[in-house]
Amino acid sequence: MIVLGIETSCDETAASVVGPDGVLSDVVYTQEIHTEYGGVVPELAGRAHADKIVSTVRAALSRAGIERPDAVAATSGPGLIGAVLVGLCFGKAAAAGWGVPFIGVNHLEGHLLSATLEPNRPAFPFLSLVISGGHTSLYLANKLGDYTVLGETVDDAAGEAFDKVARMLDLGYPGGPVVDRLAAAGNPHEVTLPRPQPKMRAPRTPSGHRGTRALDMSFSGLKTAVRSHVQSPQRASDADVCASFQQAVVDVITDRIQRAAAQTGVRRVTMAGGVAANSQLRMALESMDMEVCLPPRHRCTDNAAMIAHAGRLRLLDGEAHGLDRGARAQWTPGVA
Ligand code: KG4
Ligand code: ZN
Q1: pLDDT digit string (tens) for 23-63?
Q2: Ligand 1 pocket test: which of 128, 162, 165, 249 has the largest number of ligand atoms within 8 Å of its C-beta?
Q3: pTM of the complete model
Q4: Could you say which ligand is closest to the alpha carbon of residue 45?
Q5: How much distance in Å is there from the Cα of 275 to the middle of ligand 1?
Q6: Does the domain spanning 123-294 belong to CATH 3.40.1350.10?
Q7: Which CATH architecture has domain 3-112+302-316?
């Protein structure tokens, strides 16, 4: 089955064709209009998706050498609702026009399953960390569609913390890649920063869980500690601040993965989402005494190959959606 995937949940307009032998095309257009605002402006994102969706889908089909796929998969949430709607409506219309099945895909499930698109794919069950600008959650993936949230951030997403630290240092948006680059030249022990553990009885987490779990994370206190340091007279160099901040994030993540492995007995781990492109985080995971399967960096940030892949797995499992499939701003993976 050859599936066209469409992704428009945030600021990437992306289309990809995936078949039984893997990815046939993978087109990602990153909207640059948001850089001048220091963050994604939802209304501008929706308009830019509407401008680019036709040319992006055409490019994906032509690079794959096909005129019509066997099915269409499009992100139907979670994300910026006006942005999600563009790809979702386009995907449903294209599927109806071609007379092929349609499936709406959970963007987070796309990230969560990204590693299973690779040749050295992990077998179920595995631990999957989805770490991006909007989400930071550690899942136990038991089988397709069966995911348990073991822990998640109770405040900022890790990528959001990278972006906010970059803004404090005037490094531009998105901050993650710049912090990653600068940190390589810095001393991670120069600035003493906390490794926050959420306090008990934190408010409801993004997936609706009440109360804290041992594997939950918090990045907002870390970000505040960086701000206090940056405003202090003993301010270290940007490289040292970036290295110290990044080290703290990596320490928190590796601690939670180790605890998750001990808690579940599952020693197979993967991650995806923009922050999974981080050099130091990748090295830290690769050096863990576990079976580690990381998607390449370009499949960690938002892309449509993961949407085509997740949609294809579910279609092969007998699932499909009608044209009444709606867009969702919030949606925990594995929930119908
Ligand atoms: O998954 P993604 O492309 O979009 C969503 O948020 O869904 O993730 C974007 C986030 C941004 O916060 C960006 O700063 C961060 O991923 N990011 C990184 C790196 N590359 C992107 N963070 C740390 N290191 C990187 N190399
Ligand atoms: Zn994403």
Answers
A1: 999 999 999 888 888 888 999 999 999 999 999 999 999 99
A2: 162
A3: 0.94
A4: 1
A5: 4
A6: no
A7: 2-Layer Sandwich (3.30)
